[in-house]
Design goal:
The chain contains four helices and four strands; from the N terminus they run H-E-E-H-H-E-H-E. The protein is an alpha+beta fold and 130 residues long.
């Protein structure tokens, strides 16, 4: 199933053979246009990390409201999924290690293309490593 919006993500996570835990990294991205190529480059600063089971998420508006209750200075959310084993969902403790790795790689601009990314208005965003 192609993921075109946030609800597709939730449905896809719920339909996996093993239970999933969704990993969310809310970040502030600052872009600048390079004068010679016209391409945008910039920095990504992680603001909030959280993990949830698909049935805990609700819809995108609820996720935005929850994130804004912690910190409103984000403009993108990076999303990954952590798969369980033998029908057992991953714990928040297990997710912590992966959230730390997400923070490190996204801060450095590495592997940003391996995450599903949405802006605050639920528009899919495509980023390329720089």
């Amino acid at each position: 199933m192609a993921i075109a919006n946030f609800q597709d993500l939730i449905k896809t996570a719920q339909s996996q053979p093993e239970p999933q835990r969704l990993l969310f990294l809310f970040a502030q991205a600052n872009a600048e246009t390079t004068s010679d190529s016209g391409q945008q480059r910039g920095t990504i600063t992680p603001m909030i990390c959280v993990d949830m089971l698909p049935n805990e998420v609700g819809d995108f508006k609820a996720l935005v409201k929850e994130a804004d209750g912690i910190n409103k200075n984000w403009n993108f959310v990076f999303i990954a999924a952590l798969s369980g084993v033998n029908g057992i969902e991953p714990s928040s403790e297990e997710a912590g290690h992966f959230l730390e790795r997400m923070t490190t790689t996204i801060s450095s601009g590495m592997d940003v293309d391996k995450y599903l990314v949405f802006d605050r208005d639920e528009n899919p965003v495509t980023l390329t490593p720089g």
